[in-house]
Amino acid sequence: MQHLQAVLLGVPMTLLITVAAVAIGAVLGLPLVVGLRSKQFLVRLFCRGLVDLIRGIPAIVWLFIIYFGVSIGAFRFDSTIAAILGLGLISAAYFAEIYRGGISAVDMGQWEAGNALGLNRWITFSHIVGPQAFRVSVPSMTSYAISLLKDSSIASTIGVTEIVFYTTQDARSNAGGLTVYLLAAAIYLALSIPLALLARRLDASLRKKVSR
Predict the structure, then answer these.
(1) Is 0.85 surpassed by the pTM of this model?
(2) Which residue range forms the structural domain that includes residue 94?
(3) Could you tell me the CATH number of the domain that includes residue 61?
């Protein structure tokens, strides 16, 4: 019970980091996907390079860059803020790709239909293509949120008091050993399984709609 209580102390911070990073990624991914689909070659090239750069560098390195490398005078990001910003930045790149895939999955005829009705691209996207792309993207977004929940464990390397931080602390001070790490694994599963079930349910629902 003592080990479980110690590990549970990190759950709120783990959820906070995950939710905040997902929110940042979901928002920042929008201008990135606009850039990826831009008609301007240089804009597309810049956004493609930015997305590839963000995704190509390990998450833990981004956290170190932001936490240890970004400083102005005596100012330095708090470890929690650094973790949220780092994971949020990575999320933005992944969400941009998820959005791009969702938009590409919508038949080009939808764009043509909007154009035939005299609608501009923004109205066509916001009222016709966007909602369909979102429905297609939801399972992928949910799956990524699960992945991010697990990746949040690296925040412990910069001192964020999440699940792994308390697990390691308890293992060292109370000789928890394997037991406390198994408890941590069980908690991650308990947090991930509901999201995984939701993703499968959404995917099945979307497949039924498409098959009709």
Answers:
(1) yes
(2) 2-211
(3) 1.10.3720.10
Tally the domains of the chain. 1
Q: Is 76 helix (H, G, I), strand (E, B) or coil?
A: strand
Q: Tell which residue, 124, 175, 155, has the closest CA to residue 13.
A: 155
How many beta carbons lie within 10 A of that of residue 53, not counting itself? 10
From CA 210, how far away is CA 141, in angstroms rounded?
19
Instruction: For 173-197, write each residue's pLDDT tens digit.
Output: 876 678 889 999 999 999 999 888 8
Beta partners for residue 72, in sequence order: 75
CB atoms < 10 A from the CB of 36, how many?
A: 20
Q: DSSP class of residue 126? A: I
User: Strand (E) positions, the chain?
Assistant: 71-72, 75-76
What residue ranges in 86-195 does DSSP mark as E strands?
Answer: none
- Cα–Cα distance for residue pair 100/87, rounded to 1 Å: 20
Neighbours of 92 (CB within 10 A): 23
Phi, then psi, of 25 in degrees rounded to 5:
-65, -40
d(CA 155, CA 138): 26
